[in-house]
Amino acid sequence: xxxxxxxxxxxxxxxxxxxxxxxxxxxxxxxxxxxxxxxxxxxxxxxxxxxxxxxxxxxxxxxxxxxxxxxxxxxxxxxxxxxxxxxxxxxxxxxxxxxxxxxxxxxxxxxxxxxxxxxxxxxxxxxxxxxxxxxxxxxxxxxxxxxxxxxxxxxxxxxxxxxxxxxxxxxxxxxxxxxxxxxxxxxxxxxx
Length: 192
What we know:
This protein is 58% helix and 0% strand. Helix 2 packs antiparallel against helix 4. The two termini are 33 Å apart. By secondary structure, it is an all-alpha fold.
C-alpha cells in the first residue's frame, strides 16, 4: 500500500478551501468593524450619508449584476435553469440593500421573448474602469458567458470586501455576507 497521494485532476479556478477562507476573512472583518464602531450618535455629520451612499451603490451594483444575468439567460436560454437561482439571489441582495424589486422575465420562464441579438448587451457592476475591453456584450458561447458572469461576480465581491472598513457595523455585516455569497456564485459559475 502506497502512501503517495492519489492523482488529482488539475483544478481550474479557486479551490473550495480558499473560497471559504476568504468568506471567513470577510465575515471576521465585518465583525471587527461592528465591534469597533462608536455609539453612532454624533460621531460625524457625514457618517450616515456615507453609509447611505454605500448602501445605494451596493443596491445599484446588485441590480446591474442581475441585469447581466438576465442578458446571459436571454442570449443562452439553455443556461436558464443553472443561472436562475443565482440571478434570484442577486435580486434578493439588491432588495436587502434597499433596491427596488425587479420583475424578472428570466425568473418567470419568458426569457425567450427577448432575442439574443437584442439582449446581448448587459450592464455590469459599474464604476470600475478595470474592464478589459468588455463592453457588456454577452459572448456567443456558453463557456464565455459563464466566465463573464464569474468575472463580474468576483470583481463585485472583491470591491464589497474592500468597502467593509468604510461602513458602519450593520451595513458591513450585510456587505460581508453578500460578498461571501458572490464568492460562492463565482465557485458555482466556474466549477458547477
